[in-house]
Write a structure and sequence with these properties.
Strand content of chain A: under 5%
Distance between the termini of chain B: 115 Å
Strand order of the largest sheet of chain A: 1-2
Strand content of chain B: under 5%
Strand order of the largest sheet of chain B: 1-2
Helix content of chain A: 55-70%
Number of helices of chain A: 14
Largest interface: A-B, 80 and 67 residues
Number of strands of chain A: 4
Structural class of chain B: mainly alpha
Largest sheet of chain A: 2 strands, antiparallel
Number of helices of chain B: 19
Distance between the termini of chain A: 23 Å
Order of helices and strands of chain B: HHHEEHHHHHHHHHHHHHHHEEH
Oligomer: heterodimer
Structural class of chain A: mainly alpha
Helix content of chain B: 40-55%
Shape of chain A: elongated
Radius of gyration of chain B: 35 Å
Radius of gyration of chain A: 27 Å
Chain lengths: 334, 372
């Protein structure tokens, strides 16, 4: 049922809006953009999002991050009233410093593990000819477009959210921030841990490039001061962003409250996937036959157009559950 | 048989424990106070309110509590060995001060000489803290003498045993290195009690004068010395010590050698912080030092003071922090507002968190209406 193109431009616009509103999928039907308001979601997650490797990495990074923040901040803000209590929890200042280093080592291990996962996973996908950069964290111009349209939607200027990929602008921004933050924190932290090495190598390297530049004694102090400044400021920023933005975004905002299980189960709820990652959901439909079946039944139940009879016969080839569920909406209609 | 054996072992245990108890009793009844108070000074000084108000209105208490004194380092020294200006009892008003360089009657076991703090006092006299002939009277008054730091301290048990080479280091303050024998090592190995201050107490002690900016300004110290306590507390050493670290450097770790009293100005060749000696001083903890390392500011000035690049980075990081936090949190709040308006609820209930407003029929009708 395609809208008959009347002469009026309004109708053309409506047709365009309609095309934007419905997404036709072979074997499913016309999926409206706001179908997420009617789907049924399991709080533990319905659709795959993260592999087990990513879940393990997240657990490692999040626990070590908390330990690092607790020990590091109380060492840095030593004169604040709560610092001694937190330090006492970790067995005193000397022990806390070792705990900080061990936690940092585990976090670096998790980072290396993550890079290995990425390299291996990407290689595998490229070999199988499955690699699609749109499903990765690589930033695109579309992300900026999505951000602008999302803000318009939040302000009520647009009826629907933009159709976004597996990682939307928020996640890409956060991922870039993590890459930057980890690089700064690890390098500055190493400079603080090995002041003797860093104070020697960098000025000597500068001395080799231009002997005139490193004559003064300011360089070692400068790099140490810089390392200290960057380490502390970056850590405070990371903590504030994690505490105020990341945690709120994943566990507190509507629909995610009181707890989103994705970081443990690696699965995302259907509702969330369709709302924020519509294009990824379309790919899910193509990859997961059960999901295709579910969506087809839902569309029929809610009275939306279902795909052509040819597809119906195809879906009928799948055994019982499909036919059993298909019968119910018919009854209701009768 | 078994019972007999039990009886025999009981007898043995009984005998041993009797001896043990006897030894304990014998050990506990030997009192230091009796040895220290051979002139019976406590006859008067035991009274808690023994004191007077002097010409300036200061109240002075002359009470000596034997229970406290018997726990101090000087418990075996008789009163008159230090207060040697007292020739008769009851004595006249005291006008003299105790001289810590006085030889007392304790004979050191190896040198067989009478004990004295003279060696340490000589080191102290050459240090920056000793009054010098060309000092102003005010300066002489302000400089810390023996008793400013040493308060005949009460013994305190350390948290763990001190390894003998550490306690031996303390011995070397007075004793010559060549005199250290296996026997000395044996003794120091068994020293379980510690009279020295913790790192925090040392910082607090030095800060008593060095954090007093008015006092320091009057003596025209350098700018670095004026803010030394402040800048130290900002350093990694200072922060760790504030939190109770025992491994980190306090004031005297760097400013004095093992002799503890040999504190000199930075341009003095004998100073541990003299440019030629500083490498060795740092190497006490930082094993691999180099000529660059020693130039790191141990007393770091506030962020970027005198360093425009660090200052600029610090300011831009601050902007980045506020920008990021307000931007991201603002976006999240806007998102929540927008989604709430479209009918999302906080809790996911019965498989969905969207309730109320939009229904498929409505949106379908709307589109159909527009099409017709």
């Amino acid at each position: 049922m395609v809208a008959p193109p009347d002469a009026a431009t309004a109708a053309v616009e409506e047709a365009a809006a309609r095309e934007d509103y419905f997404t036709y999928i072979e074997g499913v039907g016309h999926i409206p953009r706001d179908i997420y308001k009617h789907v049924k979601s399991d709080p533990a997650g319905d659709l795959p999002r993260y592999s087990t490797h990513i879940v393990i990495q997240h657990i490692l990074v999040s626990t070590t991050f908390l330990v690092l923040a607790a020990t590091g901040l109380s060492l840095f803000f030593a004169d604040v009233f709560w610092a001694p209590y937190v330090i006492k929890l970790f067995g005193g200042a000397d022990t806390a410093r070792y705990v900080h280093r061990v936690a940092a080592a585990i976090m670096i291990f998790a980072a290396v593990y993550h890079i290995l996962t990425l390299v291996a996973g990407t290689t595998k996908k490229v070999m199988n000819n499955e690699f699609d950069y749109r499903r990765t964290q690589i930033p695109r111009l579309k992300d900026l477009h999505d951000l602008i349209h999302d803000i318009k939607y939040f302000l009520g200027l647009e009826p629907f959210r933009p159709k976004m990929e597996k990682f939307c602008y928020k996640q890409k921004l956060h991922y870039l921030a993590i890459i930057w933050g980890t690089t700064v924190l690890v390098s500055a932290g190493l400079a603080l841990l090995y002041p003797d090495v860093v104070s020697k190598t960098i000025p000597e390297a500068i001395f080799k490039i231009s002997p005139g530049a490193a004559t003064g004694g300011a360089f070692p102090t400068f790099f140490q001061d810089l390392a200290r400044l960057m380490h502390a400021d970056e850590a405070v920023m990371a903590l504030i962003v994690i505490a105020l933005w990341h945690l709120a975004n994943v566990h507190i905002v509507p629909g995610r409250f009181p707890f989103q299980w994705t970081f443990l189960t690696g699965r995302i709820t259907r509702e969330h996937q369709i709302e924020e990652h519509f294009l990824e959901y379309i790919r899910n439909l193509e990859e997961i036959p059960e999901e295709k079946e579910y969506m087809r039944n839902l569309l029929r139940e809610k009275g939306f157009e279902v795909s052509e009879p040819m597809d119906t016969t195809l879906s009928r080839q799948t055994p019982e559950p499909g036919s059993a569920e298909e019968s119910t909406p018919e009854k209701e209609e009768n | 048989m078994d019972r007999l054996r039990d009886l025999n072992s009981l007898k043995i245990i009984g005998t041993i424990s009797t001896f043990f108890v006897l030894i304990c009793v014998l050990l506990s009844i030997s009192s230091y106070a009796r040895a220290a108070d051979e002139d019976n000074c406590l006859m008067c000084h035991k009274y808690r309110f023994l004191g007077r108000i002097d010409e300036n209105g200061n109240r002075i208490n002359y009470n000596v509590d034997p229970r406290i004194f018997n726990d101090t380092v000087h418990r075996t020294i008789a009163c008159r060995e230090c207060h040697n200006y007292i020739k008769k009892i009851p004595h006249d008003p005291v006008t003299e001060q105790v001289n810590c360089g006085t030889q007392c009657h304790v004979i050191t076991p190896f040198s067989k000489e009478r004990f004295s703090h003279q060696h340490i006092i000589e080191i102290y006299n050459s240090s920056v803290h000793a009054p010098k002939p060309d000092d102003s009277p005010e300066q002489k008054e302000a400089k810390p003498g023996c008793k400013f730091c040493h308060l005949n301290p009460i013994y305190s048990l350390p948290k763990h045993d001190i390894p003998y080479d550490v306690s031996l280091r303390r011995c070397l303050n007075c004793h010559q290195q060549k005199g250290v024998t296996q026997a000395y090592k044996h003794i120091t190995h068994r020293i379980r009690r510690k009279t020295s201050r913790s790192s925090q107490e040392i910082v607090a002690l030095c800060a008593k004068c060095h954090a007093d900016k008015e006092l320091m300004e009057r003596f025209k110290v350098s700018q670095e010395a004026l803010t030394a306590v402040e800048t130290y507390k900002r350093s990694i050493h200072g922060e760790s010590v504030t939190l109770g670290s025992q491994e980190t450097a306090d004031c005297i770790s760097c400013h004095a050698s093992n002799k503890l009293h040999d504190i000199y100005k930075k341009d003095d060749r004998r100073a541990t912080i003299f440019s030629k000696n500083i490498n060795k001083t740092c190497q006490q903890c930082h094993e691999q030092t180099n000529r660059w390392f020693v130039e790191i500011a141990v007393h770091p000035r506030s962020e970027g003071a005198g360093n425009p690049i660090v200052y600029f980075i610090s300011i831009s990081l601050r902007f980045a922090l506020y920008g990021t936090v307000f931007g991201l949190v603002g976006l999240m709040l806007l998102e929540t507002y927008g989604r709430k308006r479209k009918g999302i609820k906080f809790l996911l209930r019965h498989g969905n968190s969207w309730r109320g407003k939009a229904t498929p029929e409505k949106s379908k009708q709307k589109i159909q209406k527009n099409n017709n």
